[in-house]
Known about the structure:
Helices cover about 40% and strands about 5% of the residues. It is mainly α.
Amino acid sequence: MQAPKIMFMSTILCLFGLLACGGSESGGENPNLGTQSADFPAGDKAMSSLNTDEQVAFCTYMVGIQGGPGEYQCDESLSMTVPDVDECLAQDFSTEFGSCTVSVVEACFSAISDDPCQLFSNPACEPMFACTWGQ
Length: 135
């Protein structure tokens, strides 16, 4: 049954501020949104092992490449909310992404940054689903 997995993953990704559909203005409070800072974690590092500075850098970048925080409408039945960086940081990085590395998550969201509604159809996201769900 694919629908429950899709809803579960959508919920997780929305909580992290990693999924959006549509466009929005970037938040004016953080000019570094969408920029990989010096603290951005190495690609081979497990999401579950990120320290606080790496989490801040990761959330800032991922929220930014989606156009900043806001609510987005993918279609008539699906809308997503991209939280701000603080809401992203409130999530538990130690459990949300299973065995995923930074590069796996980044590859997915970089591939769909122009059209995040392709999350479940873009092949670049398949590795992220595999490590998140342990498949």
